[in-house]
Design goal:
alpha/beta; 5-stranded mixed sheet; about 35% strand
Length: about 450
């Protein structure tokens, strides 16, 4: 038998053909990335990135949390530092899932906020974000023809500058020349209404609406439209009022802010068929002050109220004003830290409760928590007035603008920023006590949570 010798050229072609059929190298190209956000206790953060590859990919073989680097930059968009960098960080990827032709990157939820705090304006303002995804290693995948494919590490990733958030897709924003704007959530076929007054940090400024802040800077408004809270009320419309300036600025300038809000409320009541006996009010900080003022001015307007860290003393709400609230039908649950570096507890929530509950028997209940701050709830026997004061830690004295000193500290809350299912303790400013009632964790002597309590007055 003769030995048959093939030319080297033909041998190369055969080998190359076999190699191509076994292992296909994709050409450098672009893949789309989408950014998803979640509005949590401390505002909106980018918590998920989805990468979409070619439709013919069905399985990924060697992806882990080190495969990609996600860099995030945030730029301040208002105030003296407009255009300045707020943060520049590589986002921590906690874990990865794959499905067909998509890679889902779950990020640490304790970082990556979508807004900036402007110290000179004292406002939260939506940031300009830049997200860059770099692929650190080649990725082996299987396509729909069961062939091995390599996604090279020079693949470009393109973001369309949009943020996807499923919590805020059904919200309407109404802007008005009278200086009071609002967001509205329409709960179909409900005759109930929850009114939320934003704090000063979420107000407008310099004749700008700052319309994103009431939704993304904390979860005051969004909490009430989530399914769990909506289920408690068996459906409720939600309105979040936002002033073009802070409530304090509007009130001090003698503008008819209360009358304006009242008229808007009545228009909403008429338009959506709201039962006037089924309205709940809530607010924090400056918004807590505004909720209080509306109860004083319109004592028969609200069935119940949840008021956190109300800024009463700085807005000259007198003891006589608070005494007049006893004539109101509104049941009130107050919440604040034992210390509060922004508005002293003894001058605000504690003062209001002491006046409302004077000459009444009080039930005192101590509630211990493993991770969050423990607290004490005080309540009148008729269930109308309640106060929950949360323990603060790491206390220190601070000097106020008027030369006096006061005590401040930190609150604690149970979080899972690294998304491993294990609880962690997170410490934050003692003024942010609204986080507890908005999560419906604040309880009374019977174990009834604050939002459940507020809903029973509008059944």
């Amino acid at each position: 038998m003769k030995n048959i010798k093939l030319p080297i050229f033909y041998i190369s072609v055969i080998v190359l053909s076999a190699f191509i059929s076994y292992f296909i190298f994709s050409k450098p190209k672009s893949s789309k990335i989408e950014l998803y956000s979640y509005i949590g206790d401390f505002g909106e953060v980018i918590d998920k990135v989805i990468i979409t590859y070619d439709k013919n990919i069905k399985d990924f073989k060697n992806i882990d949390t080190n495969t990609y680097t996600i860099n995030a930059k945030s730029y301040i968009q208002a105030g003296n530092k407009k255009g300045s960098l707020d943060y520049d960080l590589n986002r921590k990827i906690e874990y990865i899932e794959t499905t067909n032709n998509q890679v889902i990157l779950y990020l640490n939820s304790g970082e990556g906020k979508t807004f900036s705090w402007t110290e000179d304006l004292r406002r939260n303002v939506k940031s300009k974000l830049e997200y860059t995804v770099v692929q650190n290693t080649d990725i082996d995948v299987i396509n729909t023809s069961d062939e091995k494919v390599v996604i090279k590490n020079n693949t470009k990733y393109v973001w369309d500058n949009k943020i996807i958030n499923d919590d805020i897709t059904n919200i309407e924003y109404i802007s008005d020349r009278d200086g009071i704007n609002y967001h509205f959530y329409n709960s179909t076929n409900s005759d109930k209404l929850i009114v939320w007054f934003v704090g000063s940090g979420e107000s407008g400024f310099d004749n700008m609406n700052n319309k994103e802040a009431p939704v993304i800077a904390n979860d005051g408004f969004v909490s009430f439209i989530r399914e769990d809270i909506q289920n408690i009320f068996n459906g409720a419309n939600v309105v979040s009022f936002q002033p073009i300036e802070s409530w304090s600025d509007l009130s001090s300038s003698k503008k008819k802010v209360y009358e304006t809000v009242y008229k808007k409320l009545n228009k909403i009541i008429e338009k959506y068929g709201i039962n006037k006996d089924k309205i709940v009010v809530a607010g924090c900080s400056s918004g807590g002050y505004m909720a209080t003022e509306m109860i004083i001015k319109y004592p028969d307007l609200f069935a119940s109220a949840i008021i956190a860290c109300p800024a009463l003393s700085v807005n000259n709400v007198t003891d006589e004003d608070l005494e007049s609230m006893k004539k109101s039908k509104t049941a009130i649950w107050l919440v604040q830290g034992e210390t509060d570096g922004a508005v002293a507890t003894e001058d605000n929530a504690l003062r209001m409760f002491n006046i409302l509950s004077s000459n009444r028997d009080i039930i005192t209940t101590r509630i211990l928590e493993d991770y969050s701050s423990s607290y004490t709830t005080y309540e009148t026997l008729d269930d109308k007035y309640k106060l929950s004061l949360y323990d603060t830690v790491d206390r220190q004295s601070i000097k106020n603008f008027d030369g006096t000193t006061s005590e401040t500290g930190l609150l604690k809350y149970e979080v899972d920023f690294n998304r491993d299912g294990e609880s962690e303790v997170y410490k934050f400013l003692d003024h942010f006590s609204w986080i507890y009632p908005l999560n419906n964790t604040t309880k009374d002597s019977k174990g009834v949570c604050v939002i459940d309590w507020s809903s029973k007055f509008v059944k």
